[in-house]
Design goal:
By secondary structure, this protein is α+β, with helices and mostly antiparallel strands. It has a single domain, classed as endopeptidase fold (from Nostoc punctiforme). It is 37% helix and 16% strand. It has seven helices and six strands, in the order ααααααβββββαβ. It has a six-stranded antiparallel β-sheet with strand order 1-6-2-3-4-5. The radius of gyration is 18 Å and the shape is globular.
């Protein structure tokens, strides 16, 4: 009887332990640097968000659920090879915006795409938006493909915002007002300030 109780408790303890690990990994952060897009931003330790990318390892036969939600947003079926990207987006969706942030507590635009490339594509890119633009191949809006960067000049002569292109005009980014979310490049606001696309050299 006692051994049966232990068997029942083991899965529960394991789930609680995993949940606590994920929660704590998202709460650790460095003190935010208040300088906008400064090249002195500290790099994010891989361990700070590693548990969240582990959630992106979806079963090969998975369909619906979280993926279905994003299929509705972008207006097309998501290929299984792209599940890690959308599970990453789901883990970060709604994360509040803050200058200098680059983790699940808060993030700025360049910090978000920095983590996307690190954790989804396993490739290091620059930490600030202007340097990300300088390091990427220049693209027109019509040439964008999933994973390309999209750059904006919002009330500025310099690059002031960056996001990650998805498909059908949709891109994911850390909005200053609403945090990490998906928007449309063709919306009046983003269309007005869109500057260029950029393809990361891997």
């Amino acid at each position: 009887m006692f051994s049966e109780g232990i068997k029942i408790l083991r899965p529960t303890v394991w789930v609680l332990g995993l949940s606590l690990t994920i929660l704590l990994s998202g709460c650790h952060s460095r003190k935010a640097n208040k300088v906008k897009h400064s090249s002195t931003h500290s790099r994010v330790k891989r361990s700070e968000t590693r548990s969240d990318i582990q959630k992106s390892e979806a079963p090969k036969n998975y369909s619906g659920g979280k993926i279905g939600k994003y299929e509705e947003i972008i207006g097309r079926k998501i290929d299984k090879n792209d599940y890690p990207l959308y599970y990453f987006i789901d883990a970060w969706y709604g994360t509040p915006y803050c200058y200098g942030g680059a983790n699940l507590k808060c993030t700025d635009c360049s910090g978000f795409v920095y983590n996307a490339y690190d954790l989804v594509y396993h490739h290091k890119i620059a930490r600030n938006a202007e340097k990300q633009y300088e390091d990427a191949s220049d693209l027109s809006k019509s040439s964008l493909k999933q994973g390309d960067l999209v750059f904006f000049k919002i009330n500025s002569s310099n690059i002031s915002h960056v996001g990650l292109y998805l498909t059908n005009g949709k891109f994911v980014h850390a909005s200053t007002s609403k945090g990490v979310r998906i928007d449309d490049l063709n919306d009046k606001y983003y269309s007005k300030y869109f500057f260029r696309g950029g393809r990361v050299k891997m």
